[in-house]
Amino acid sequence: MFRAFFVSLSDTMNKEQIARNVSRFTMQAEPTVNKRKIIIAIDGFSSCGKSTMAKALARKLGYRYIDSGAMYRAITLFIQQHGITLEELNKMTAPQLERLMDHIHISFHLNPETGLSEVYLNDENVEEKIRSLKVSDWVSPVSAIPEIRNRMVALQQSYGKQKGIVMDGRDIGTRVFKEAELKIFMIANKSIRAKRRFDELNEKGFMVTIDEVTKNIEDRDYTDTHRSESPLRQAEDAVVLDNSEMDQDQQLEFTLEQLRKLNVEV
Ligand code: DC
Asked: Which atom of ligand 1 is nearest to the CA of 144?
């Protein structure tokens, strides 16, 4: 088959064309299964652009992207939908929390139009609903509860078994995947983060003010870094990416450069 391919080529093409086609042919024929797949952990503060970068990276590498924050948001939505207050939640005993979690089934399903995984709460797609400021206002205290975190961490770890995954969150490099081959810790100037989140919410039709968004970011920074269970912090082996002055292409290129240093094919 290879011979026939070359013979028919040489009839019609000059040497340069043949060389070009041969290299294209060998590239296609290369078995992709042998490509080394790794785990990429992206952590950082709220609204630093983690998910935008993680999605672009997953698309570029053909990896699966998991938004771990979406899981805590979906749980928060469930709690709000069932009229449970934060005070009640914080008073629950460990067995009560375990029983509550038994009623919450979180999963991800691929959206064939976008090629991205979307979060489902008890088989309902809640990808849009979980982005409201109402959910954002409660999600940090909800995610600080150890029984809730333990369940989510176990689920997140199960997604990494096959490798070839990009996951973003707060404790991915420090707890979920301590062994991740690449860890990125994203930071950005607070006013830039607030402006980005404000634009994103407005675009999605949520009516919010910049002051509300700024306050939410400040509150979440505080809660996420001060909780006793897996507080947000930079893993010792993480690479810091300050994207305050960077556009999306530059951020992606920065990360691809880290992968090249690890000899990962990009
Ligand atoms: O990434 P996000 O803003 O959608 O996350 C929402 C909240 O969930 C965040 O304020 C803290 C919590 N979270 C967490 O505790 N651990 C993670 N791995 C991801 C998110």
From this structure: 15
CATH number of 37-261: 3.40.50.300
68 lines ligand 1 (CB under 6 A): yes
Question: How far is the centre of ligand 1, averaged over its atoms, from the C-alpha of 21 (Å)?
Answer: 48
| 136 Cβ closer than 6 Å to some ligand 1 atom | no
pLDDT digits (tens, 9 = 90+) for 55-83: 999 999 999 999 999 999 999 999 999 99
Q: Is the CB of 72 under 6 A from ligand 1?
A: yes
**Looking at ligand 1, which residue's alpha carbon is closest to its atom 8?**
69
DSSP string, 179-203: T-SEEEEEE--HHHHHHHHHHHHHH
Q: How far is the CA of 197 from the centre of ligand 1 (A)?
A: 14
Tens digits of residue pLDDT in 204-232: 898 999 999 999 999 999 999 999 999 99
Alpha helices in the chain (DSSP H): 2-12, 15-29, 50-61, 68-81, 86-91, 94-102, 133-143, 146-159, 190-203, 210-226, 248-261
pTM (2 d.p.): 0.85
Domain boundary assignment for the chain = 37-261
